[in-house]
TrEMBL record:
Top-rank taxon: Bacteria
Protein name: 5-hydroxyisourate hydrolase
Organism listed in the record: Xanthobacter aminoxidans
EC number: 3.5.2.17
Family: Belongs to the transthyretin family. 5-hydroxyisourate hydrolase subfamily.
Reactions accelerated catalytically: 5-hydroxyisourate + H2O = 5-hydroxy-2-oxo-4-ureido-2,5-dihydro-1H-imidazole-5-carboxylate + H(+)
Keywords of this entry: Hydrolase, Purine metabolism
UniProt cross-references to PANTHER family, sorted A to Z: 5-HYDROXYISOURATE HYDROLASE, URICASE AND TRANSTHYRETIN-RELATED
Gene: uraH
């Protein structure tokens, strides 16, 4: 059994990014995608439950979509109009095990890695 979790960190404030909408899509071989779940990050920048776990975890390619532009507008961070980064999509291939995908972001940049 596998599990997919995430954590969003705001590098402008130096802390967790709360109330960020995160969508998870499963990608199909023909280029389509199916919405699996939509969550919001809590005060710690994490979702309250994993995005995928147990029987819902199926090997394949997924796309996490982070709506960070709304977070930065809500916090009063300096955001261009239109924002340079508004929605950040990340594609990951899951096989088995625990996948943790942190997103470190600002209105101008982001980075990610496979965490533990």
């Amino acid at each position: 059994m596998g599990r997919l979790s995430t954590h969003v960190l705001d590098t402008v404030s130096g802390g967790p990014a709360a109330d960020v909408a995160v969508e998870l899509y499963r990608l199909t071989a023909d280029g389509g995608r199916t919405l699996v779940t939509t969550r919001r990050t809590n005060a710690d920048g994490r979702t309250d439950t994993p995005l995928l776990a147990g029987d819902d975890f199926l090997p394949g390619t997924y796309e996490l979509v982070f709506h960070i532009g709304a977070h930065f507008r809500a916090t009063g961070a300096p955001v261009a109009d239109p924002p340079f980064l508004d929605v950040v999509p990340l594609r990951v291939t899951l096989i088995e095990g625990h996948y943790h995908v942190p997103l470190l972001c600002s209105p101008w940049s982001y980075s990610t890695y496979r965490g533990s």
